[in-house]
Amino acid sequence: MRLRIIVLFILAAAGISARAQTGFPFDNEIRDFKHQDSLKFPPKNGILFIGSSSIRKWTDLEQRFSDKPIIRRGVGGCTLEQVVDYYTPYILFPYQPKKVFVYAGENDIAAGKSGYFVAKEFTKLWAMLRSKLPRAEVYFMAVKPSPSRAKYFDEVKIANTKIKAFLAGKKKGHYIDVATVILKPTTMQPDSSLFEGDLLHLNKTGYDKWQTVLQPYVK
What we know:
Layout: H1 2-20, H2 27-39, E1 47-51, H3 53-56, H4 61-64, E2 70-74, H5 80-91, E3 99-103, H6 106-110, H7 115-132, E4 137-141, H8 153-167, E5 173-176, H9 204-218
Parallel strand pairs: 1-2, 1-3, 3-4, 4-5
Helix pairs in contact: 5-7, 7-8
């Protein structure tokens, strides 16, 4: 009887583990990342970029910082809330990175969440990072004002302002302004020439702007 209980417990645990990587947003991409990891696991103390499609579509990120151990884990059009609720056990904590760059929050706002909500979700992520990776440097990349989402700019500003204030004075916490650099100096509105045709994702020139801002933090 005892042996049967032990077997049932093992089977139940295996089932929970299997479900952990299925049934949530973009779970297919998480499985792809875990498959990559099974073939060649990134070394510890790497530099992790995690977040939404602005990271996923930055396909030459590793080449731009070719002398650094970059780990790029952008997930679909994910939200910051989803990063907090689903992805950290799979594509954040296992790598034990020395630096974590986070770009997320834009899709939360586009889905109707407030800037205050995004800031609150980041404080949750911060607490998780401090608990699991206390030695890691954490960098929040400001939510960018995408031209196609102009009606959300007020909430974007609130999110960035709140998170910047939260990180001020935090040991190992950094706010990186990658938003202002993609604005036209004359109008302080987003420069559409830095975006792809969807006016949502950055093009190569837009990523050039980001690289310049990020360079001293990555190095």
